[in-house]
């Protein structure tokens, strides 16, 4: 009777444990795949939709680095009035044999269709850095163009046919 109750108790314990393991596990639903960047081909190549809108955006630009080496390389850009009558440099003279110049240009072009035509917003800026001591060349930011255009009307700061040569 002792073995019989032991077997019966083991079977009951085994049934209880296997019943607990047989329960279905909680499975979380997989999220739907999200499209982060949609290509906008309505205005040409390079545009993408700004998420949540029907506005197309194109970001462009370049980075340039230039260096020159030679005897007093950075003084070659100075005007003649920066030097005295003996040829000695003025207060802005640099005696470095290296000259480095870097430029970064970035542009943002946003377009959207409206009932009046295409609405365009454009902004471009240029960032320059030069290691010489000429006060006109060192670190500066220049807004190249900034305008809004709707249909045939354009307002802002932009180049026309006679500006860039």
Report what the structure shows.
The chain is mainly beta. The chain has one domain (27-157). The chain has one helix at 2-21, and strands at 39-40, 47-49, 56-69, 98-114, 117-130, 140-150, 153-157. The chain has a seven-stranded antiparallel β-sheet, with no helix packed on it. Strand 1 (39-40) and strand 2 (47-49) form a beta hairpin. Mean pLDDT is 76; it is low at 75-90.
Rg computed from alpha carbons, rounded to a whole number of angstroms: 35 Å
Tally of structural domains: 1
Mean pLDDT figure: 76
What structural class do helix, strand and pairing data support? mainly beta
* Number of distinct helices: 1
Strand percentage: 35-45%
Order of helices and strands: HEEEEEEE
**How is the main sheet built?**
7 strands, antiparallel
Tell me the helix content: 10-25%
What general outline do the C-alpha atoms trace?
A: flat
The count of DSSP E runs of length 2 or more, i.e. the number of strands, is: 7
Distance between the termini: 110 Å
Biggest β-sheet: strands ordered side by side in the sheet: 1-2-3-4-5-6-7
Poorly predicted runs of 5 or more residues: 75-90
How does the SSE layout of this entry go?
Layout: H1 2-21, E1 39-40, E2 47-49, E3 56-69, E4 98-114, E5 117-130, E6 140-150, E7 153-157
Antiparallel strand pairs: 1-2, 2-3, 3-4, 4-5, 5-6, 6-7
């Amino acid at each position: 009777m002792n073995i019989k109750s032991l077997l019966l108790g083991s079977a009951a314990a085994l049934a209880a444990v296997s019943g607990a393991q047989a329960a279905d596990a909680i499975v979380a639903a997989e999220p739907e795949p999200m499209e982060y960047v949609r290509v906008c081909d309505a205005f040409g190549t390079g545009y993408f939709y700004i998420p949540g809108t029907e506005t197309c955006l194109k970001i462009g630009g370049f980075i340039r680095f230039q260096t020159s080496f030679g005897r007093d390389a950075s003084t070659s850009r100075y005007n003649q009035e920066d030097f005295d009558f003996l040829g000695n440099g003025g207060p802005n003279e640099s005696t470095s044999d290296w000259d480095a110049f870097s430029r970064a240009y970035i542009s943002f072009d946003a377009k959207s269709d409206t009932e009046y035509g295409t609405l365009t917003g454009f902004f471009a800026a240029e960032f320059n850095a030069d290691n010489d001591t000429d006060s006109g060349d060192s670190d500066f930011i220049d807004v190249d163009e900034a305008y809004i255009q709707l249909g045939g009307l354009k307002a802002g700061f932009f180049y026309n046919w006679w500006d860039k040569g």
